[in-house]
Amino acid sequence: FPKKVEVFEISIYAKNGVDDDRLLHAANIMAQYLDNDEDGEIDNQLVHDSMKEAGAFMVIWKSQMDLMFMSEPDGMIGQDLGNDETIIDWHSNGQEGQFDASLEEVLHIITHAGYANAYPEVFGEEEGSELCGAMDIARAGQFFDIPGEYPEDAWYHYDDVTCDYSCMATEYIYWALTSLLGAHEKRGDDINHEWELYTPQLLVATDHAIFDLLTNKEYAFPTVLPDGGYKD
């Protein structure tokens, strides 16, 4: 991964085949998540410090083959993103067409390496944290393995059998925050097999536990959806 951009000391690496504009777009998405008011200062320094302490980084690949011989270095936590799933134009064409996956994958490294380590009792990705308690409500039960069928009153019913309980928590906070920020208002039919609260209104009315966590000013979560135009 010979290309590299640093965003507030967090490295994003890319293969030669990755388009420069997509690498820079992902970097700008990260900058907007970490500095959502774009004043040049990190919004939550504790989260940022936790990311650095965990050795957080990202890699952008052109082909899945690029990941075959890669493993995380000891003492580091990585997250991958695909070149062809980084869709810059999604933000300027009315949020139509293929979704910009950088909104998901960049947020994953921030919550997994940052929030989960900065506030383990609140955002830890294991049984007993407030985040996981909210997730158990959203799934209408505490499921360490994917159930054959989720209860009817669940609104979060992810069914990827390769995703363990911790992974489910990472996905849950992604769905909740990006829905609150308005990323999925036109995507209901595409995502409701996994997540039903695809508008801010649905989230506010239904998932009170995660809404309270995401809007608690102590944690300084983003309030504006990133669009890749950091400080434009």
Distance between the termini: 28 Å
DSSP helix count?
Answer: 9
Question: What is the percentage of strand-forming residues?
Answer: 5-15%
Taking all Cα atoms into account, the compactness measure Rg is 17 Å
Protein model, in words:
This protein has helices at 20-34, 45-53, 102-118, 120-123, 130-138, 165-180, 188-191, 200-206, 208-214, and strands spanning 3-7, 10-14, 56-61, 77-82. The protein is α/β, with parallel strands linked by helices and 232 residues long. It has a four-stranded mixed β-sheet. A hairpin with a 2-residue loop joins strand 1 and strand 2 (10-14). Helix 3 packs across helix 6 (165-180). The longest helix has 17 residues, at 102-118.
Task: Give a quick set of tags describing it.
232 residues, alpha/beta, four-stranded mixed β-sheet, 9 helices, 38% helix
Q: What are the SSEs and their pairings?
A:
Blueprint: E1 3-7, E2 10-14, H1 20-34, H2 45-53, E3 56-61, E4 77-82, H3 102-118, H4 120-123, H5 130-138, H6 165-180, H7 188-191, H8 200-206, H9 208-214
Parallel strand pairs: 2-3, 3-4
Antiparallel strand pairs: 1-2
Helix pairs in contact: 1-3, 2-3, 3-6
